[in-house]
UniProtKB/TrEMBL annotation:
Interacts (via extracellular domain region) with trypsin. InterPro entries: MFS_trans_sf, Oligopep_transport, POT_fam, PTR2_symporter_CS. PANTHER family: OLIGOPEPTIDE TRANSPORTER-RELATED. It comes from the Eukaryota. Gene3D superfamilies: MFS general substrate transporter like domains. GO terms for molecular function: oligopeptide transmembrane transporter activity; symporter activity. GO terms for biological process: protein transport. This is Solute carrier family 15 member 1. Belongs to the major facilitator superfamily. Proton-dependent oligopeptide transporter (POT/PTR) (TC 2.A.17) family. It holds the Pfam family PTR2. PROSITE patterns: PTR2_1 (PS01022), PTR2_2 (PS01023). Keywords: Cell membrane, Glycoprotein, Membrane, Peptide transport, Protein transport, Symport, Transmembrane, Transmembrane helix, Transport. It is a multi-pass membrane protein.
Amino acid sequence: MGMSVPKSCFGYPLSIFFIVVNEFCERFSYYGMRALLILYFQRFLGWNDNLGTAIYHTFVALCYLTPILGALIADSWLGKFKTIVSLSIVYTIGQVVIAVSSINDLTDFNHDGTPDSISVHVALSMIGLVLIALGTGGIKPCVSAFGGDQFEEGQEKQRNRFFSIFYLAINAGSLLSTIITPMLRVQVCGIHSKQACYPLAFGVPAALMAVSLIVFVIGSGMYKKVQPQGNIMSKVARCIGFAIKNRIRHRSKKFPKREHWLDWASEKYDEQLISQIKMVTRVMFLYIPLPMFWALFDQQGSRWTLQATTMSGKIGIIEIQPDQMQTVNAILIVIMVPIVDAVVYPLIAKCGLNFTSLKKMTVGMFLASMAFVAAAIVQVEIDKTLPVFPKGNEVQIKVLNIGDSNMTVSFPGTTETYNQMSQPKDFMTFNVDNLSINISSTGSPVTPVTYNFESGHRHTLLVWAPSNYQVVKDGLNQKPEKGRNGIRFVNAFGESFNVTMDGEVYNNVSSHNASEYLFFSSGVKSFTINSPEISQPCGKEFKTPYLGFGSAFTYVITRKSDGCPEAKAFEDISPNTVSMALQIPQYFLLTCGEVVFSVTGLEFSYSQAPSNMKSVLQAGWLLTVAVGNIIVLIVAGAGQFSEQWAEYVLFAALLLVVCVIFAIMARFYTYINPAEVEAQFDKDDKEDYLEKSNPYAKLDSVSQTQM
């Protein structure tokens, strides 16, 4: 095939559009599948939170470790194009396998709506996940490098713009999929029994992956394909090993020093290879501090979402659930990338500042660090509003008088009188070791409360007659999860009843006792009381007031004088008051940091890599993300700070230190143009070759210069 001039469009190679569309579909497919995983593990496979989370994080880490594999295959064996195609096929198969694993009718032979052998589904979904991790990880470093390959010399500006568009496609794909996939999940389907439609929700990403593959193959004729150059990685490893061994062998003073430690390989390896390895090691050295950025960045999904659960999602007329705050990042990226590219950078250039790649990355780290300072400030605001829970060997107690007469209860150091159904004081805190409680009322003897109080927990003391009491352990020693509201019922009737609230059932709430808490999202809920004691004409339907975010209430159900039930609400934990809108500044800072850090990093890794190791450096870049993920797992596992804001400040400080170190390292980095360096070597080789083949040519040129 002759050298065809690449077709172009707006000054970009036409092939780029296929690559961008491919990336968009692939990311949609990946994030769509990932958004479902945790729910699929819990609800379909029936795993608990810890197992689900562990497998999920392992999968994400795998997806960032497999790029090394993909890069090796691409740069030393198949070339980028064939690697992308073959691994995309593996990927599509993986997506199909996981979709099949979620078909409940696959092993549901007795048609009762639950799979008969769950292990088949578990095995299939694990095989699917491994194939997906191989696929998505393997093509990641190749797609971005392959895109960069499409540009000619002198198209640096377009190439930089391409990496921005590429990053935009990634985020547009993830944004759309996080919105659309949950909608698919709530559809119902099934042959014999209808239930949540996981096969459809997993099937759409699988179909998109197939589309992504087809789009990529259609563009085949237009791509500029760089041939892989033998097993480059083993050559690199051998060369580095030889240099180190040789250096150690010649460590005495009598050997002259060499400029660079890799120059010790020059006895055995050619200069071009050595110079290429120098390029790679210089960049890899710069990468050492970078995982710290990702360690902060990856906490959006975990820590920041948890922070949102202690905030109120009512912003004006709209209501946001805590886990929807993550989409703010993707939305802001889609807005910020074009602004930064088309407005901010040109403005900085107009001011005559040379805003180099490494300077941009330093600024990105600084912004991320500031985002965590903002998060810490928000956390301090939240902490002011949080209820105080018992710590160490403290217990907290609250009294509810559900009887007909006044009661006096004495605690260590205080005595309180409770009227019938009075709003109790807040929880009182006592030390578990010297806790003695006595109940009395006029004209009756004192009753001591005998109960083994559990330290670190809240308890409710129900009293209804001088000698009748019941202690209930609340079981809530933190704000309800996910910004939901805890509701429990206390039965002041003579026998047990059932309560149904918003589809959840409180079974057999026994007389003079409290149910467990069940949790509900924000809004107004209605509940029904079913009891043989309630006569027909009575109303059994009740409505709660508007429930916000993160509150807990106890509803005491008593009998009115006409025998009908009445519900009275007591607040246990007040709803969140700090608005989630306060998280927007930290998301904004982090997103700006990401735009100047991440897009630049992709582009820098490409531009500084020798032509035969483009994918390898992209994989090195992705490896910093993987290490960042691992740092989070270690830090989160190692120490829980007593104060969340302190942890944010610690992370911010760490990143600032790393940012300063990186800035110093960047000062000493000299930018190169690998293509020019390689061209220079080719030219020298050519001259050497000519010289060998024609010894007189050299003399000739010398004599001419002497004339």
